[in-house]
Fold:
Amino acid sequence: MTINRTKTATIAAALLIVVAVALTVLLTGWTNGLGSTERTGPGSDGTNRLGGRAADLELRVADFTSRFREDSGYRGPSSEERKAVAEGVALLVDGQRPQAEKRLSDVDFTIRTITDGAVGRRYAEIADRTEDARSPRGWGRIYVDLSAPIRWSVQVPHPLTDLHTELLGVNVLRGAPGGVLVIAGAHREAGKGDAADVAHRTDSVFDAICDELAERGMPAVQLHGFANASAPDHDAIASTGSGYLARVEGRVLADALRDRGFAVCRAWTRDCPLEGRSNVQGRKAEREDAPFLHVEFSNTVRTSPSRAARAAEALRAVTGTWAVAALPPRN
Structure:
């Protein structure tokens, strides 16, 4: 009897070792297969058998913007360089990835596919090869949803400067399918004078991309941040920029923010600070009859994870409707 018990215990122990080894191999393979986010060149999208590189999009964007400096990291693009990036983005939005990769490679941009672990959605990441260089150009990053037809965009012109607007932008992108996230590539003060203030310049890569999307009639929400002292009675300032086409969406957003406990200044009904009337992307959207929302959030909202999550949820009330609406026919 004692011998049988000993034999049984030995067999059980051996089985446990086999299971442990198998789990180790499985988990190692899972990590190696999904955790890599190596940059890929033209003609290769970096996908694996599960459809893309697994990553936390929020962490990727936070790492990207953490390298920004106030006194360096921006070189203004030429008109040809702006055109090349905008055309590459347009080709990708139209589903022509090989052509997009070729056009973007002309100006040292790459495309890779990642799968955002938070929502399981696949995105194309368009990035500048000079990001890691000693002297980056600061032309930005773009994320394009690959799970659905592209219908709307979220724009972040002052990442890091308007603290955490870049992270809020990620969570807005996650909130509804069919979105494009456009992030400026440098600190607002990085260029000579206001050269890197892309919300007020028409000679940036950021503006060229936003123009391309606006010319398709694509609605957009642009995210900004303000110091609490700039509007102490408000958590958010919602505006339609220089135009009024997005008033309906503005009301929906303002109501959604109010319902989540935020004090909102509605720029279409009263005078508000920071209304974004001079924003150049808003002016372009007005000329193209494309809905545009300019939304400012206080520091308190942006730096609180729970408040920022509620803000992103409120924005989903608008982007969710854009995701299922058809774009106007192109001329």
Q: What stands out?
A: The longest helix spans residues 2-34. The radius of gyration is 23 Å. Residues 1-52 have pLDDT under 50 and may be disordered. The longest strand covers residues 109-116.
